[in-house]
Write a structure and sequence with these properties.
With about 450 residues, this protein is an alpha/beta fold. Helices cover about 45% and strands about 10% of the residues. The chain is globular, with a radius of gyration of 23 Å. Belongs to the glycosyltransferase 28 family.
């Protein structure tokens, strides 16, 4: 793809698209505001920041609050991504740069994931958490997808970087192609975590498997070392959920601000039936990876005996996979969790990082049933929520249905779970807002210019 014409526009009139003429303002306060805008639009002061994400909307959404903060501070922002993410980037009000082609999940990988999900507990353990060997399989499978995405994106990212000349590249932590482009171009880069812990440092063997997966691509571009660290890592994970972090990597704490996509407030979100309201979800990646939403259907069937109201959140195209539901069940397709979770008393989910983070900011208890097909991360998330007193962990796939119903009764009837959930809200609120990180990123870009 060619970005020459785009670059020519910027070179012809640098900053003109945001220039403000203060003489048009009649009031002196307005004039001062106009002067400030003009100052921020000056190309010697405003940064060009390229953000990048891969594969799924859940990988892009955590970047949005920081992108908005950068734009509000007067900086130019572009988001580079695979084609599939185009509508999500544009719906967030950000400028989209399509690079490479979409990664397709391999049919063999999907069959293996489905088999691991339905295989049942290993003999003698009574547990479904993956063994070290099984976990290594899941990590390698995931890394193969991210390495594939990096290979598809790298050349276009490098080409666009040469034309647009960003001062800084911010990449979600599994967008390895953006880190590679930053290294090739000599541009400072920042690694952005999701709302969960840094699994790269917390799960044994992850770094070695990451290096193994990425070395061919990095070598192809003349890079001897595979260390996708960036100059620092933005960490939106509250300390209660985080691993012990190494001193060898610089972390910049940030408050997690949920963004689950654009949506519309609907009347049902604030009108309650009087019954406890329970949210159900397996996130947005499960359908893409597994090809089904069977856990959601299972949750609905198991909870049918309880006198509760259920809101089942499913991704685009997921309603028909859930099937027919009763009058106390609402299937909310493609509805952002952040819009309705505050109206709920409890959420039951799979332990995905984005879901955990959004539930955490909503201040409601969580019941987590991690699927073994997604490896160790959901189990870690569940354990940390339990340790914080904000929820319980169950195994819906292999425990008796009554155990989930008992867990729901226990959480709804025990005030301490709500107290634990509110404690996590306060822990998150104590961290710096995305806007407070902008000056640190300006410093990084400024050192690069000097």
């Amino acid at each position: 793809m060619c970005f020459t014409a785009l670059r020519a526009d910027f070179e012809a009139a640098p900053g003109a698209w945001v220039r403000v003429d203060s003489e048009k303002y009649a009031h002196p306060v307005d004039a001062a505001i106009g002067a400030e805008f003009r100052s921020r639009a000056n190309c010697e002061e405003a940064m060009r920041v390229l953000l990048s994400a891969v594969l799924q909307p859940s990988h892009f959404f955590p970047l949005v609050p920081l992108a908005w903060a950068l734009r509000a501070a007067g900086h130019e922002v572009r988001v580079a991504h695979q084609p599939r993410l185009t509508p999500f980037v544009q719906a967030a009000g950000l400028t989209s740069v399509v690079v490479g082609s979409d990664t397709q999940i391999d049919a063999t990988l999907r069959r293996q994931a489905q088999a691991s999900q339905t295989a049942g507990p290993r003999p003698g353990t009574g547990a479904t958490r993956p063994s070290p060997a099984e976990n290594a399989f899941h990590i390698r499978a995931a890394l193969s997808l991210f390495a594939d995405a990096a290979g598809r994106m790298a050349d276009d990212l490098i080409e666009f970087g040469r034309h647009w000349k960003p001062d800084l590249i911010v990449f979600e932590w599994q967008c390895y192609g953006a880190h590679l482009a930053a290294e090739v171009l000599g541009i400072p880069s920042v690694r952005h975590q999701f709302s969960g812990p840094d699994f790269e440092v917390g799960i044994p063997g992850w770094r070695d498997m990451e290096t193994e997966s990425l070395r061919p691509l990095y070598s192809k571009h003349g890079l001897d070392e595979v260390r996708p660290d960036g100059l620092l890592t933005i960490d939106p994970c509250p300390p209660s959920l985080q691993f012990d972090l190494p001193a060898t990597r610089t972390y910049l704490p940030m408050r997690y601000v949920p963004f689950n996509g654009s949506g519309q407030v609907q009347e049902w979100m604030f009108r309650r039936s009087g019954k406890p309201r329970i949210a159900l979800t397996v996130g947005s990646s499960y359908l893409w990876m597994m090809g089904n939403l069977s856990p959601v259907r299972m949750f609905i069937d198991v909870l049918a005996e309880l006198d509760v109201e259920i809101v089942a959140a499913v991704p685009q195209g997921g309603t028909h996979l859930v099937g027919e539901v009763g009058p106390d069940v609402r299937v909310a397709e493609n509805v952002p969790l952040e819009l309705f979770l505050p109206s709920c008393d409890l959420i039951i989910h799979h332990g995905g990082t984005g879901t955990v983070g959004t539930a955490l900011t909503s201040g409601i208890p969580q019941i987590i049933s991690p699927p073994s097909a997604m490896g160790d991360p959901p189990f870690h998330n569940a354990e940390r929520i339990v340790a914080a007193g904000a929820g319980v962990q169950v195994d819906v796939h292999h425990d008796a249905p009554e155990q989930l119903r008992d867990a729901v009764r226990k959480v709804l009837e025990t005030p301490s779970f709500l107290d634990g959930a509110r404690g996590l809200v306060e822990e998150n609120r104590a961290r710096p807002l995305p806007a407070e990180l902008v000056s640190r990123l300006e410093d990084l870009a400024g050192r690069n210019r000097d």
